Amino acid sequence: MSPLAGKDRAVVQLLLDAGTCPRCVLRFCSVGSQLLYRHPLQDLMKDLQEFLKNSQEKEDTVCLDVADPPCKRLRLEHKEEGAAELNHNGAIPQLPSAGNTALQSSAGRVCNVCLGILQEFCEPDFVKKVCQKVNSADYQFTSFVFSVSLPPQLSVRERAAWLGVKQQMRNLGLPLAKDDIVQLKEAYKWIIHPQLSEELGVPADGKSLFEVSVVFAHPETDEECHFLATACPDCFKPAKNKQSVFTRMAVIKALERIKEEDFLKHFPCPPSSPKNLCDALDIQCNNGAVFVAGRYNKYSRNLPQTPWIIDGERKLESSVEELISEHLMAEFKADSFNFSSSGREDVDVRTLGNGRPFAMELVNPRRIHFTAEEMKRLQQAINDSSDKIQVRDLQLVTREAIGRMKEGEEEKTKTYSALIWTDRAIQREDIAFLDDIKELRLEQKTPLRVLHRRPLAVRCRLIHSMRCEYIDQHHFRLRLRSQAGTYIKEFVHGDFGRTKPNIGSLLNRTADILELDVESVDVDWPPTLAD
């Protein structure tokens, strides 16, 4: 049961006379019944009016016959002793007598606390407007989470209304047992969740990845927060991506700091009713990201992994990332994507063998459900679109699973095949000793070719093993297995002595690399799929 007791009469009377809507009155009386808030406003107003009449005659509790689930609370004040008992004009408010005054005062007016959010924006017409926006966006979803962005001045008005109640109760010598109210967002969701769920045909779920959000604004009262910047300037500092310093969190922080008497000097308690309702500025939908993983082979020596753009100018027409993302973006109908992989190869390096693991985050996808067969067809479409790359093991994965691709990246091994040229003639016996070298430790300074984007450092890397194939007096092929993160080109030519030792120093002649292929990336992820 959720009772309104005789001691609540003064609160109900004061708020209704000030222009507070019935649902906000219930919030200030700490009524936690979800079902009660869903009753029509006119019925709630009649119930409150009846309560006022009855409470004049007796002090017995009037019970409202609905369930009473637990609810969260919003602390509205700090325990400060000696706070002023004045309204903004310095006068002590008086409690009007009960009667028809309250009904006449609140009827047809915009609520002075919620600015109409618990009035017009709980009605079926608004719910249908929200659902029309959701359905027209063409998302796949099996549940939803609902979020609300409220004007920051609502926090100021709630504080003012509460201080007005507090002063009235003290003035009348009545006990004030509670200093908390039901949050506006919580009450709003209690009302609107069942309506949205029925209209959309799916349940509300706080853990859902599909979010429906409404952004409210109230231009008429925008400046009501400004006095707080003078009282608490440290709370209002410019921040990136914020159009105004008066954010909800900044206002709440200032309200926690400002003294009660200072607040009362600047703001009427209880607040006055505005002329206009809130505006629903925007109704937005957003699906949680979907993650796709696989392995790619790159067969071109003229294809970068990611778009190659220098000073705003594109150097090559495409990239591995774009050849894959073009198809995924179209099928998942996503807004954007983020591409990552287990290492990267240079533009002129091929990736052979079983390919390089990659993952793609698809942001705000409209479509999220794909069968294994559909993913296989998507993989084939990517492979048919270009002879420069091939994709295998394409599959949906979780965000957590992507971490396995990056785990212990430097401890993993990679196998390469390099075509090497030497300035002085070589014989088979000149390179045979390389096959016997195991666990060769290198010291590599950041290569000159990447110094513009990598910090200067000396990195220790291991060449685990090497195997040579003699071709002619100036060429041989070197197959080597190395620690991930090793700069192979620099290991061959030495990078002007920045990598020690190197193939040139080991052979005591100038060496350079003509071709390089990645033959395997030893990361056991993502799982191999059957053809």
TrEMBL record:
Q: Which GO terms describe its biological process?
A: tRNA pseudouridine synthesis
The EC number(s) attached to this protein equal 5.4.99.25
| Localization (cell) | Cytoplasm; Mitochondrion; Nucleus
Q: Which UniProt keywords apply?
A: Coiled coil, Cytoplasm, Isomerase, Metal-binding, Mitochondrion, Nucleus, tRNA processing, Zinc
Q: Does the keyword tRNA processing apply?
A: yes
The Pus10-like C-terminal domain sits at 291-522
Source taxon at top rank? Eukaryota
Give the main localization category. Answer: cytoplasm
GO MF annotation list: metal ion binding; RNA binding; tRNA pseudouridine(55) synthase activity
Where's the Pus10 N-terminal eukaryotes domain?
A: 111-285
Catalysed reactions, as listed in the record: uridine(54) in tRNA = pseudouridine(54) in tRNA; uridine(55) in tRNA = pseudouridine(55) in tRNA
Question: Is the keyword DNA damage assigned to this protein?
Answer: no
Q: Which InterPro entries match?
A: PsdUridine_synth_cat_dom_sf, Pus10-like, Pus10-like_C, Pus10_N_euk
One GO term describing the cellular component? mitochondrion
Family in the record: Belongs to the pseudouridine synthase Pus10 family.
Q: Matching PANTHER family, A to Z?
A: TRNA PSEUDOURIDINE SYNTHASE PUS10
Stated name of the protein: tRNA pseudouridine synthase Pus10
Organism of this sequence: Loxia curvirostra
Taxonomic placement: Eukaryota, Metazoa, Chordata, Craniata, Vertebrata
